[in-house]
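Encode chain A's predicted structure.
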Amino acid sequence: MLGKKQEGKPYQLISEELPVLERAARTSEYDSLLDEFVKGKAGTVRVDYPSKSTKALMAALRSRVKKRDLKVKVAMRKGDIYLSKA
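Encoded structure for chain A:
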């Protein structure tokens, strides 16, 4: 209704406990790649990931290997990335 003042406040405060935030487990796009390698039979593989730069891929794989405490070595040879089981 136009021109008519509202009675009271346009809001209300309701006393409640803060709901617990359920966080999803964080995973990386590289976890499936590393899982496949660790479960596989090959001791060393070359990683071909065309949509990622070599340096970014190298850094990301090393980070995930360290964070997950995997027995995997990440190496770069002539611009290619290799994974080796340690």
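The chain has a mean pLDDT of 89.
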